[in-house]
Specification:
The chain is α+β, with helices and mostly antiparallel strands. The protein contains 1 helix and 3 strands. Strand 1 and strand 2 form a beta hairpin. The longest helix has 16 residues. It is elongated, with a radius of gyration of 11 Å. The relative contact order is 0.35.
């Protein structure tokens, strides 16, 4: 599996918060889905509250 760096921001109570996560995944789409799932689980966010700005290979 490859490593991808997914960056973006999500809506917080105060405003927007930036994030950058490194994910092991077979392709970019799977990395995006994994980050959306992880942020939803950790912060109680819906997918519409997360803006992914970029996915790059690490």
């Amino acid at each position: 599996m490859s490593q991808f760096v997914v960056s973006g921001r999500f809506q917080d109570r105060i405003g927007h918060r930036d994030f950058e996560k490194t994910i092991d995944a077979p392709n970019e789409n799977v990395a995006r889905e994994h980050v959306l799932s992880q942020l939803g689980s950790e912060h109680g966010l819906k997918r519409t509250q997360v803006e992914i700005e970029g996915v790059t290979a690490a």
